[in-house]
Amino acid sequence: MSVKRILVVGSANIDFLMTTPYVPSEGETVISEGAYTFVPGGKGANTAVAAARLGAEAVFCARVGDDAYGDRLINIYRENGIDLRYIKTDRLEQTGLSVVMLEKGGANRIIVYPGANRRINDNDIENAFYCYPDAVITQFEIGEAAVIQTARVANTEGVPLIIDAGPARRDFPLAKLEQVEILSPNENETEILTGIRPTTLDDCLRASMALMNAVDIKYVVLKLGARGCYIYDGKYCDIISPYDVQPVDTTAAGDAFTAALTLEYLRTGDIITAARFANAVGALTVTKVGAISSLPTRKEVEQFIIDSIS
Length: 310
Ligand code: RIB
What we know:
- The chain is globular.
- It has a 9-stranded mixed β-sheet, with helices on both faces. A 4-stranded mixed β-sheet has the order 3-2-6-7.
- Helices cover about 35% and strands about 25% of the residues.
- It is built from 9 helices and 13 strands.
- Alpha-D-ribofuranose (RIB) binds near residues 13, 15, 46, 110 and 112.
């Protein structure tokens, strides 16, 4: 089977990670347990590295700042075999930074300073498509104009467009995305985009239909965390059961899921098979701390699936 080339147009961040027994409420100070670290992250970078570790040729279109974090991130991408040709070092903005508050049990809350990520421009994106990708993935962590330009070029060039809807915004002009192969929001993002929390199967269906009314989408894949994922193709729906794992950090699980979903969909042409594989990748990702540091290789995923069956 030929190796699939996936272009990711997305964010590159350094994550300031701190563990906390719980997230403080207004006016409250909480003492963190454990050390703090600066680790590589960013929804785009996590997705690109996840795709590479799973066996794709991953091409990353991004911007980092002209600073030590930018250099460090580029080295990490190089070590992971990412095609670096479309990563620019921006002279005006700093490298993006995320503050990740990690609670006991693995839940996280994240604040992002986008920095250089918001300087990805139309030319950067147009140039990146010269890599002739089999699919392009983007998220909403770069500027709105960059997401729309990615969609425009993907549609003009006939490249399947996969959108991971994080972080979602109620007023994002979804209709401007024209044609989307797969739209994959998590539970919060679904609620922000549609006003419907995907709690019951009926809610999942209503939310998926609302998304399909807003933009031309082939598959909606709702990421439901510990409940697995929900697929809707405009006619049929399916729930794909989760893997049972003990989560320590959910950061980057959604990014890894989308990378895996895209790659397996390209390889097999079957969204259900792809979603099963993506569930395994998401599950493994939550068992380790950090973003890029928690992303599994294909070998690890295959072993995990075998172990789960036996
Ligand atoms: O999806 C997880 C990512 O969101 C983190 O790595 C952080 O950088 C934020 O972008």
